[in-house]
Amino acid sequence: MDDFFFSLLLAGISVGAVYALIALGLNLTFWTTKTLNFGQGSLMMLCAMLTVFLSSQGLAIALAVLGSLAVVAALGMFIERWTVRPALQSSGGSMGWVVSTLGFGIFLQGMAAKYFGSQAVAFPDVVFTAQDFVTVFGQYISLQYLVVLAVAVALILAFELFIRRTVWGQAVHAVSLDPELALVQGIPVRRLILGSFMLSSVLAGVAGVLIAQIGGTVDPAFGFDLVLLGFVAAVLGGMGSSLGALAGGLLVGVISKLVGGYVSTAAEHGIAFALLMLALAVRPQGLFGRPEVSKA
Amino acid sequence: MLELRDLSVRYGAVRALEGVSLQAAPGGITAILGANGAGKSSLMRAVSGIAPVAAGQVLLDGQDITALPPPARARLGVAHAMEGRRLFRQLTVEDNLKLAWSFGARRGKLAASLAEVYARFPILETKARIAAGLLSGGQQQMLILSCTTIRSPRFLLLDEPSLGLAPIIVQQIYGFITDYAAQSGIVVIIAEQMATLALRVSRQGLVLRRGRVVLAGAGEELLRGKDGKTLAASYL
């Protein structure tokens, strides 16, 4: 195994873990409302840009990240209340939310460009700098990548525990299966939906900060194709499956980095979408999507 | 006491229920009878809060709950077993029970409540880890009854508990319902197409036709026929 392959693999896994975070966020709102927030990318961008802004105002980097996450969480609730809910209430089963969430994302992007400028800005080092590394079996491993990987995996595990082990996680699952039954059983569906958008936005925000940490810079256009890659990961793994989100994320991350390294970085995104088309043609339910089990 | 005052339910232009009034006191069963599409389910859905009420009121113990959302009504003690054997089919039997208990009135501990359910329907314990959608029809109905009663309800609404079940299972289900109604002393309302079956165990009955009450009275009375109208005639 040569150094180049190994570094590409590690980069792919780290980036892939972040895609998995984005995919989990998409899954969460898909469970509660069967909608996706296509403005996720702008939330990722905004969270990273705000972190840069707040830390440039002299705030400690940890506080800057937390403050940005709080803003993004509030925006998540705003998105549910004002872009998704009205779209779902108008003429049953409409797809208006696709346009309204995307539109709000573009609005956020425009606001960021107006107030922070459309130039890329350097993202501050959160824990380690790009030069820090450890050596394992003679291979250089970037500590930044390791931190990103550790944070992403820890969050994915925490999220899974929450969904599987707590009654609120079960309630989210219940709402995804039969919202009406959940309502008459006393599950506060409205609050759960609001919470799912909030949590989904926080996941996006964390993903944004992590990716910015790897890339080193952020600009207002950042995040737009990232959320598409997260979407590819979610569909590839099976929409609504957490394990699928993780597997899909890693697959997209590793394959796109390898293609980027050996073929051309211009092909990175192309190959991700080729994967998506292949998956939809061969296995539309995704790697871990399950067909419904039921008896009449 | 559950009370409906001049209740009307409309789905767009479709009038499902028109000016229906009803008083159901605790400690007895009320049967809602009628053919398909008569408005039985709409009446129940209006009580649990998932049908659009166009006019009239729903009162629980004198409190007007017409404007309350479904979860708030559930917290006041309304438990609704919807038609079509609605369960979380992909969740296990035990997870269904846990969810129902968690968002119910929570009298006593979960373990004790589960033990009570399993003592009554041992088959549910055997199948505790199996997806609810894979149970037989009778077992699903047992699970649904258990999910509603594990919530310690004060107002129990059962929509066609006999639908699609073998006669022997229907007897078992109705045996359970009558015992539970007698022991708990709560308000129980059953919507049923098998009129004689429901009336035999009910204190009072109500026959709906195209959303209106066409016959109402004591259970015995309706079985024998009232005001020269027989039960069968009110269906036609």
TrEMBL record, chain A:
Gene Ontology cellular component list: plasma membrane
GO terms for biological process, alphabetical: amino acid transport
Membrane topology, as annotated: Multi-pass membrane protein
Keywords (A to Z) from UniProt: Amino-acid transport, Cell membrane, Membrane, Transmembrane, Transmembrane helix, Transport
TM annotation in the entry: 6-28, 35-54, 60-83, 95-117, 137-159, 192-214, 226-252, 259-282
GO molecular function: transmembrane transporter activity
InterPro entries named in the record: ABC_transp_permease, BCAA_transport_permease
Domain of life: Bacteria
Protein location: Cell membrane
Pfam annotation, one family: BPD_transp_2
Keyword Zinc part of the UniProt annotation: no
Family: Belongs to the binding-protein-dependent transport system permease family. LivHM subfamily.
Protein's UniProt name: Branched-chain amino acid ABC transporter permease
Organism name: Dankookia rubra
From TrEMBL, chain B:
One Gene Ontology biological process: L-amino acid transport
Pfam families: ABC_tran (PF00005)
SUPFAM superfamilies for the chain: P-loop containing nucleoside triphosphate hydrolases (SSF52540)
Keywords: Amino-acid transport, ATP-binding, Nucleotide-binding, Transport
Classification via InterPro entries: AAA+_ATPase (IPR003593), ABC_transporter-like_ATP-bd (IPR003439), ABC_transporter-like_CS (IPR017871), BCAA_Transport_ATP-bd_LivF (IPR052156), P-loop_NTPase (IPR027417)
Gene Ontology MF terms: ATP binding; ATP hydrolysis activity; branched-chain amino acid transmembrane transporter activity
Ranges where the ABC transporter domain occurs: 2-235
Family in the record: Belongs to the ABC transporter superfamily.
Designated name of the protein: ABC transporter ATP-binding protein
Source organism per UniProt: Dankookia rubra
